[in-house]
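Lecture notes, structural biology module. Today: joint structure prediction for complexes of two components.
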Amino acid sequence: MASAATAKLYVTEAGDPLHGILAEFPGPGELYHAAEAVRDAGYTKWDTFTPFPIHGMEEAMGVAPTVLPRIIAVVGLTGAGLGFLMQYWMQGVDYPLVTQGKPYFSWQAFIPITFECGILLSAFTAIGGMLAMNGLPRHHHPLLKKERFLSSSDDRFFIAIESADPRFDPHATRALLERAGATSIELVEE
Amino acid sequence: MTSIHPDQLNAQRLAGVARGPTPPPVNDPSTGDGTLIDTPGVRPPLILNQRGFGEITDIVCGYTENKPPRWWLPAFLSAFGLAQLGGVMILYLVITGIGTWGLNNRVDWAWDITNFVFWIGIGHAGTLISAILCLLKQKWRTSINRSAEAMTIFAVICAATFPGIHIGRQWMAWMLAPVPTANAIWPNFKSPLLWDVFAVSTYGTVSLLFWYMGMIPDFATLRDRADRRLRRSPDDGPTVAPFLPVRSDKIRAYVYGFLAMGWRFSSRHWHRYEAAYLVLAGISTPLVLSVHSIVSFDFATSIVPGWHTTIFPPYFVAGAIFGGFAMVLLLLIPARQLYPNMKDLVTLRHIENMAKIILVTGMMVGFAYSMEFFIAWYGANFNERYAFQNRMFGPYWWAYWTMISCNVISPQVFWNKKMRTNVVVVFIVSVLVTIGMWFERFVIIVTSLHRAFLPGQYGMFEPSLVDIGIFAGSFGVFLTLFLLFLRFLPAFPMAEIKAVLPQASPHGLAGHGAGDDSQHAGTAHGTTKGGH
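The predicted structure, tokenised, for the full assembly:
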């Protein structure tokens, strides 16, 4: 990507490549407004970290609606279709069985299993798609090396801006986060 | 806007500094623990004692991180022993054959299928809480949904055992699945019994996925806490056991870390997570309705008098939710008494709400009972009329009247608010409902079969010791799994509970300040223009 190529490489004083800047905010309200400020400053490679999903955070961050539900719908309907075809082929084509005085291909009797197959594939797509689109499972991340960051799973609120962002500048980005009300700011090594 | 760090919230509120929702007058006895407020416009607190985010984490993680209460090990060992009894009985059954049950040629479905329908029904309350109440935006569900979902999965495990061992040659159970075999015959897709196989296995799988996805953020919280303790004191800390010098936090960091899949509380992740959660809730809702409907098809599509009725699907679903909520209460009422601070999370309002659901679904079940009789009379079919007379006054009259007294009469005490907010009364009614719902399935299955069309087909069913042992064993399995769940897994969805706390709103503590609202309207408008 062009933006990634033009981004400068930063190194900390210790010589480690820089992942980005991590800023802590005192509460959901401050984080919400700080996120609006970062979004309006035009950053793209950044994220907020909160112990729970904050209502309306997508808008504050300018995150587009996810396509995940559409993917689930497509795969779910495919699952239902495959379930129906399976029953049709097994019962009506491969080994027709005379049971219950019904025709070999009696589609009405195939509806329950068709439905269950659709649900099953939708559920796997929902959780698998959510994880895949989030880049998970991923058992290491530069942020997780920061002890302070670990309290985002408890009661703290953070913004992290990556140095790969084309607008990233160690001084300007830091100043932006300070203006937005950060209570602590630190560098994150790669 | 000035808001304060949640850690300081409690102190500031107590000192009267911070603005917040007016604390309810707890000393008013009509509000119970402070949550039983019926005044319109006053929102009763979902969590008591104005807990902050950190306190929620500490309370919930404490259940797995601290030493278990003293009753836990004896309770676990008793439940585990009971499960072992069931295991031995199943082994005996597999070695010897189905004849060790009290089944016979007349009554060829009895306790096994009764227990199957009983357990699968219990699971339905968990899905109702996690899926249907989620779609209905019932915020109070957050405190109870994790344990109710756990109960669902354990109940499905117990349920699936029974048809599995009922098939006679248990080692041929794989033939239920549509796999290519040497004799080239596929399963009969026109049979409700096969629909049942698909419905129950889909239900079990989807419930497990839903439960697991809900736990991912909480696993991450447990991982991070263990990780932080390891970083602070790398060399010193509690070990698993004196003879096993491995730090428990190290095991926690690895196991919970593995299960958390690297979750790091990113808002971009939360965004997709919430979308996936909503979709799962949306697909679980028709799924749970379909499962018990399909279970009822096992009976309704036959021509046996007493089974051949169109009311079965809705009647079974209502009964499943009825019996399931009773089981949720049976598990949560003792748990909230025994675990520290659990009363802050599972309040009297939760108990009252569930009691109300029991009352409503109990009335639905009662309506279904009477409608079955009406149709048997109105349908003017001799065999159908006889089947229902026989239920009331035949040799199994005691089972029928146990069912009526437990399921229709006992929940009526919940019309009284004092009764449905008294945990002892609620517990007793839940016990009765659980007994009644077991007898409902027994009545449907056994009384319909034991006097089929011709007097030559008349017979009686009496349970054998193996019947009783396996049924008791299923309770052992259920309780063992539930106790392990309370001990090792996050028993409450911390992230979801934090999200419904008043201070979780980014627009002021209660989210209702006039100034904050107008400010929000402005920013939200700007966002839609500037975003994406």
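Point to remember: Residues 77-169+187-301+477-503 of chain B form one domain.
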